[in-house]
């Protein structure tokens, strides 16, 4: 289960590009242990507004931490990258209204797109704002493991649109022999060959072996728009890379994003999960374990398991409600569900019985979920 929200004060809103900012929060000493994070994790930010009728409306969005992992006492500050998305209510607010001194509700860190620093070769293919968690991964790895190397292939539209350009350049200057950086620009014709233009499966299949010995890479990290992740994963399959070495996090900032703006996800599949039961004609019951407490409630027709739980337990974990961020991940203890879509769970998590509550429609008379496991 994800940790709770705490109001944190904004100390800086730093412009990165025309449409991206880095937001820094101060963490009080008493909360620093709770906000200790692993490189690659993210934060859920919450804002409460009112609709036209004055009814309170809660907006949650997930953004990756872009700073190195903190020490054992936890971080004094937290920094996330936010790219403005067309029609994105939260990202527009962050760009136009959020200012130093403001308080914003921030959930304790979560996420499984992480790396434990060990000796060896590592590599990443990132697109656009996908650089955000990878910046945390690279900076932490190179600082903590002197026998590690990292190859970073990043794709951006133009130099001007590239987030954290200076930070990546500083890392390259600090670790010239251990960080190999390849910058691909899709809308600037200043390059030729494999590193020019949009990265697709064929180009990546040719490019990656030219950069490093693919078979020796201990971990591949793919982060960015859905299409780039699919093409990158396809190239790695063609190159014989074992699936267990590939870690994916999808940033939905393409033309048809799922609900939410610029939220992120690990890639999985949708479908039916659990034993082969039939839903009863008289509705269904959802039992949920949350924070060590259990409750059972009758679901309404058509609603998801998360919607049923939230009507009685508003502290249930969620963020995007689009099958993207993975915050509502729960273990399906008994019963069956149909998930509309899943961009957040890896195959091993599905095999272990985990589901996304926001996408899970009960298909058996009783469904039992455990948010604590």
Automatic annotation (TrEMBL):
This is Phenylacetic acid degradation protein. The keyword Iron-sulfur applies. The keyword Metal-binding applies. Its cofactor is FAD. Residues 3-116 form the FAD-binding FR-type domain. Pfam families: FAD_binding_6, Fer2, NAD_binding_1. One of its GO terms (molecular function) is oxidoreductase activity. Keywords: 2Fe-2S, FAD, Flavoprotein, Iron, Iron-sulfur, Metal-binding, Oxidoreductase. SUPFAM superfamilies: 2Fe-2S ferredoxin-like (SSF54292), Ferredoxin reductase-like, C-terminal NADP-linked domain (SSF52343), Riboflavin synthase domain-like (SSF63380). It comes from the Bacteria. Residues 284-373 form the 2Fe-2S ferredoxin-type domain.
């Amino acid at each position: 289960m994800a940790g709770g929200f705490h109001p944190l004060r904004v100390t800086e809103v730093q412009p990165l590009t025309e449409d991206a900012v880095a937001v820094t929060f101060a963490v009080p000493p008493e909360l620093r242990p709770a906000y200790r994070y692993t490189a690659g994790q993210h934060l859920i930010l919450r804002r409460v507004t009112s609709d036209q009728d004055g009814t309170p409306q809660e907006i949650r969005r997930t953004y990756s931490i872009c700073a190195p992992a903190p020490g054992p006492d936890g971080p004094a500050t937290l920094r996330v990258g936010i790219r403005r998305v067309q029609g994105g209510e939260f990202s527009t607010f962050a760009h136009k209204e959020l200012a130093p001194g403001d308080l914003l509700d921030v959930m304790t860190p979560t996420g499984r797109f992480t790396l434990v620093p060990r000796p060896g070769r590592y590599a990443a293919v990132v697109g656009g704002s996908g650089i955000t968690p990878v910046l945390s991964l690279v900076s932490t790895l190179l600082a903590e493991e002197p026998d590690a190397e990292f190859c970073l292939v990043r794709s951006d539209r133009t130099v001007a649109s590239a987030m954290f350009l200076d930070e990546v350049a500083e890392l390259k200057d600090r670790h010239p022999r251990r960080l190999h950086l390849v910058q691909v620009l899709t809308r600037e014709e200043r390059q030729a060959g494999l590193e020019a233009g949009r990265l697709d499966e064929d180009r990546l299949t040719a490019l990656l072996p030219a950069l490093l010995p693919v078979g020796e890479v201990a971990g591949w990290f793919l982060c960015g728009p859905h299409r780039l992740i699919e093409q990158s994963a396809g190239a790695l399959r063609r190159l014989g890379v074992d699936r267990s070495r590939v870690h994916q996090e999808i940033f939905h900032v393409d033309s048809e994003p799922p609900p939410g703006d610029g939220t992120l996800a690990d890639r999985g599949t949708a479908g039916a999960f659990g034993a082969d039961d039939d839903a009863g004609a008289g509705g269904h019951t959802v039992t949920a374990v949350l924070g060590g407490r259990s409750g059972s409630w009758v679901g309404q027709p058509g609603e998801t398991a998360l919607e049923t739980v939230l009507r009685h337990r508003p502290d249930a974990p969620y963020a995007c409600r689009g099958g993207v961020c993975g915050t509502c991940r729960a273990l399906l203890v008994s019963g069956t569900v149909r998930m509309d879509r899943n961009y957040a769970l890896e195959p091993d998590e599905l095999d272990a019985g985990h589901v996304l509550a926001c996408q899970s429609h009960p298909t058996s008379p009783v469904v039992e979920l455990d948010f604590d496991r």
